[in-house]
Records
---
Amino acid sequence: MREPAIMFRLPTHVLSNVEQLAGRLNISVNLVAKLIVTREIMQIPAILEEHDRQLGNMYQFLRELASRNEEFLSEGSNQDILAAAIMAKLEEVMGALDAIRDAAFVRPSTFIADLIRRHDERPHQKSLRV
């Protein structure tokens, strides 16, 4: 049974680039779009898993920070030690936030460049029309 078609619109400048790439690789525009979308979607579970892990770490941090603050406010002595422990936890959560921001950053894909390179290494090539 044939899978249902999924359609979406591309801006004109993006579509022309995809068409040029498809022509250079001698494959259909639909296949290029499918390869790009499939590759991007395959990365989503790993990103979501990392985000969930980091959010869990931040939740745990907030619970520990609240506990430390209660200790800090209830005890008059050892304030320097407790303040250092709070600062260490704050640095830890800042690292977690940096990791989340880094995981959300879109990195360029080498998949298309690899397709072009493989095409360019073929023994017989057709020149692109200018």
---
Amino acid sequence: MLRRTPTTITLTQADIEQWEASRQRKLHEAQQKLESEIAANESNAVYKPKESKQKSTKDRIMGGTGKGY
């Protein structure tokens, strides 16, 4: 059987800097996406009417306010 010479992988400083820049860019994009989704949810929440909580059986029978006081 023939033997190959071992493969050597070398990383240069430029390779590391390029990987780090790519990683930082992806993190920044993910952060921007998350912030825009939060802002969109907050703006939608302002215009949505509040959902009324359904009264429990005890509140309906005893005439409670449904606020748990």
---
Amino acid sequence: MAATQTPPGECPQCWEHAHNKRIHRRLKPRQDCPQCVDHMVNGCPYLTPKKESRWW
């Protein structure tokens, strides 16, 4: 499913779908990926930690 090279703080599904062209190869032109649409509509199911914000 997800690539093992997923950087820390990144969603494995988002990363895999953005960088693996094989996933979307089976789709017709201008056809949306159902997994990507579900991910956009329902939000990312993974809790990705944000970098600590420092003012100073």
